[in-house]
């Protein structure tokens, strides 16, 4: 089922999300719905707070990046098949010199800005079967994970921008929070009531 994506300005996007237990109700169904929602919006990642749930769960699928001809073949091969579910994730280490990449967010449509992040991370997480992993990622895979991880920490990519950049996009952000935007996927805006 395609769920509405929560728009910028909703308080749930600023909450530090809570861990979940293995017996979280209908977890498989939730993950399937998140995947359907993400693909419908042409995203490469989606975090539970973006569908209104303040829990430590996010998904990534970097396959769209594999179509970038300017990228080394080895990187493209990895990104083509990189699809993961991250539950109760914790980044334990970030390494390397920060690099800029133009990021966007399904909760903040039509806003893209360069964000600086470190290129290599070590992350502990549980997969959809609640098996624990500790893995190291770098490059674009690390970038997507860091972006989604920020969501479960209550941080948006716009929080990482300079005060000048924030002032320049303030009008766009206000319009998004008011629903004054044309998008081709379902969204829920802060002034709308939740539909049960």
UniProtKB/TrEMBL annotation:
It catalyses: N-terminal N-formyl-L-methionyl-[peptide] + H2O = N-terminal L-methionyl-[peptide] + formate. SUPFAM superfamilies: Peptide deformylase. Fe cation binds at residues 105, 147, 151. InterPro entries: Peptide_deformylase, Peptide_deformylase_sf. Keywords: Hydrolase, Iron, Metal-binding, Protein biosynthesis. Its cofactor is Fe(2+). It comes from the Bacteria. The active site is at 148. Pfam families: Pep_deformylase. Binds 1 Fe(2+) ion. Its EC number is 3.5.1.88. Removes the formyl group from the N-terminal Met of newly synthesized proteins. Requires at least a dipeptide for an efficient rate of reaction. N-terminal L-methionine is a prerequisite for activity but the enzyme has broad specificity at other positions. NCBIfam families: pept_deformyl (TIGR00079), PRK00150.1-3 (NF001159). Belongs to the polypeptide deformylase family. This is Peptide deformylase. It comes from Corallibacter vietnamensis. The lineage of its organism: Bacteria, Pseudomonadati, Bacteroidota, Flavobacteriia, Flavobacteriales. The gene is def.
